[in-house]
Design a protein that fits this description.
Largest interface: A-B, 102 and 102 residues
Shape of chain A: globular
CATH class of one domain in chain A: Mainly Alpha
Largest sheet of chain A: 3 strands, antiparallel
Structural class of chain A: mainly alpha
CATH superfamily of one domain in chain A: Cytochrome P450-Terp, domain 2
CATH architecture of one domain in chain A: Orthogonal Bundle
Oligomer: homotetramer
Distance between the termini of chain A: 56 Å
Strand content of chain A: under 5%
Strand order of the largest sheet of chain A: 2-3-4
Helix content of chain A: 55-70%
């Protein structure tokens, strides 16, 4: 059954024959292996071009910043899955990745799109006015302000300044950092509470300044968390806690349904 | 319901409070972001120690080597999934990762375990004799020889020498490369055909020489392929081929079941 | 780290102790096993009440109608995944399920929501007018009309009348079937082509008439397709075609990227 | 790239054209929708034949028995995933299914294979002797005895007798039930503790007696749990506990790694 129009598959990422593998126009064995770090290779795979020094520094720093934050829900889901199905680590990684949705890791992309909207709304004009307009419009539609506020880090998430410093040192564009800060400035008056920039807003703020495509932003937390998930699952093999997490989670479990008539 | 013994979950990977996040004994914001590349951070997450220069060079080169090889089955599965469920890129990445099983990407780990077995069998003695014994034992049990032979690269997979060169230049241990070559040498007489080293054997050969744990080997192709999957899914958003792949796949489809009585 | 407000988990679905398991107020071993079919049990799990005869007939017929339609993309993704990772059938089922997204199987839910909207817009009045208004509004927002048109079945999908007949015979409510037909009637004038009702619209049309909750509609194709995926993966174990599908899919593959300078 | 031999995909499950869909030799719209329950359709999809009355009763009862057991680890993983990625229910179902591995739901298949082995070992002779031999051989290889013992139900799991009663009433073959009981009888002397039959052993014991294929056993808990997962995720949409589970799980979390020098 034919769905849609395209019938011959095509891709600009890779081709190969018996003697060589070409990735984004480069001979993999001759020109990439040993000559480009893995973070930079991710940039090349995604965009088709090698990152410059600023893009390399910024992308690697965001991947490091977002990879690991302890036993977050997706790590718990992955470790429980590993405990139940230890033969298939790929399944446990997949279970963890499936938690990279709109609520948790998706905020990097949504915040990035909000910053692009503010950039365009401001044109050459006042950033704070544009930020106020865009944030207000989101509030009116009852949309959250992605990338601001954090359940644990009430002051500013410490990763935010670390990322901003990397961007400044590496010579990354500062425009979207200014936008991110403008949003932070206008939030108290528009939202009525003081929500500080968190890592999910800092990531697009620094990446958009080095030419990282907004469409690919969601890939950054996904790749980063995969590294963390693999580390946790490796630890799970040595020192399992998957069932302990599950046991703890339901110690105060309350059944709110009915009980059968008769019986005990 | 309590399954197993451990009841309080513990982990040596990460802890955090309102002001800082500690990963493997380092302050994430102060000491890691901007100071360590993503490939090296993966090593730290997994092993608890920062890689030395040789480990860094070798690990990054293996991640680059195995990430991308075109429209392999798992990339096709991911792109088809993305076409059907475009709102949830994490689902398409997960679908692709679920193909990282024993037949395809699992070979890196299995080959690594075989090399460790040969290393121990050889002790200080003859590597070729130990390789012959271990390979013969696998053949007797009708097990495949993981990491040798390739459907496309009949001569040696070009990534193999590239990885071996990185290891030599970076000063990585050469012991497991010698073992991998010894296996290649004995295969013709034991197996009866000439199966050349492929990238799945080269990866553990270079990684075991820089202290990468054998248990974590399967994580390398998984993390690497995640980068490739994200790049392909990003391309799928711009230039969809998921349904085209599916259409092509069944152009010669043959139904081998029965037909109902009556009707057309 | 605490995210959100609720801290003690609760559920109305199941509780158990050493001697019995209670599901939705019934003793599982005493009152359900052997006394309720699996389709009906799904209704009970979802809604908390046992289906009446009409609901049982209609729900089972929809599950049968949508389970299997040959080597659709999600089945292909699952069979490719099984070929690559044969030890973990759960991973291949999961890969197939991940294709149950908004484009493919999600249409049952979206069509159901559209029918509810038309029902409310019509109140006691003219169904065709309400259908015209709602369909026109979707067109203005450039939204698709979910559940109408089919790439293969240009006349009406044969499953549609089969489901409508089951509903009529079983005494299910006909209101949403009338709405579904009213939408079909107004599509030519509003959309400009003749898109016939397909199975994804027929499913909510019959289910909403027997009290099936609109929120749970997306569960019907998901459960149904799981049955089909398991059957295909069982066949894959006996007679593998996963790699053949992948090979066929790329026979006409076109690399649209650059080639390296130099080399072959 | 061609992997393996088969190049034209084939399947005996389904074919379709513009006017009809044929499943396992039956016209889906004419002969199956409305005429076969969903549990029976699963049997047809899997085996190619319609179940007789005994097979229908037994298969439906096993699906009902194993579907739901409260907030087990895979349900927790699914609800956490749903909380983090609420737009993609298929991802949360998949995350739950990925916990259907060798340790948890895989026991139905492993127990079934053990029973077949005992059946063949006994030939026409003494079942207890054959059971003793097979169980002893597993113990010597340090393999678990799948389907015996339960963390909560120390006496016999109440679902076991319910399933055995269904089989007896429906006229299912009793041979594998006798084998299952023989294993229970010999366990105290061979294993040294009294491990009672649990539901994972009762399922293959009744299914093998009605001609259900041993290879397909693992599909029964997978399909059953999918129904439960969908019910839990539907409840999660109305009354979310995913993050509460995650919060509870780590209330006693212990970080066992190092702390950085300096700082707080």
């Amino acid at each position: 059954m034919k769905i849609g129009k395209a019938t011959a598959p095509r891709s600009a990422i890779c081709t190969s024959n018996e003697d060589r593998i070409v990735v984004r126009g480069h001979d993999l064995a001759r020109d990439l292996i040993g000559q480009v770090g893995f973070g930079d290779y991710f940039f090349l795979l995604l965009t088709g071009r090698k990152p410059d020094a600023a893009a390399s520094a910024v992308l690697n720093s965001t991947l490091v910043a977002i990879a690991e934050h302890g036993l977050v829900p997706s790590v718990q889901a992955a470790r429980m899955t590993m405990a139940a199905a230890p033969d298939a680590m790929q399944g446990a990684v997949a279970a963890g990745l499936l938690g990279s949705g709109s609520v948790i890791l998706g905020a990097s992309e949504t915040a990035g799109r909000m910053f692009v909207e503010i950039d365009q709304a401001a044109a050459g004009g006042d950033l704070h006015a544009a930020a106020r307009a865009v944030v207000s419009a989101r509030r009116e539609k009852k949309l959250p302000i992605p990338g601001y506020g954090h359940p644990e880090h009430k002051r500013r998430d410490p990763r935010v300044d670390a990322l901003f410093n990397v961007s400044a040192r590496a010579g990354g564009g500062q425009r979207f950092i200014e936008i991110a800060k403008a949003v932070e400035d206008v939030i108290p008056e528009v939202v009525g509470k003081d929500l500080k920039l968190n890592v999910s807003a800092a990531i697009p703020a620094v990446l958009l300044g080095v030419g990282f495509p907004v469409n690919a932003l969601k890939g950054v937390p996904m790749l980063a968390r995969t590294a963390s998930l693999i580390a946790h699952l490796n630890e799970e093999l040595d020192d399992p806690i998957g069932f302990a997490l599950s046991y703890q989670a339901t110690r105060e479990y309350l059944y709110t349904g009915k009980m059968p008539e008769g019986g005990r």
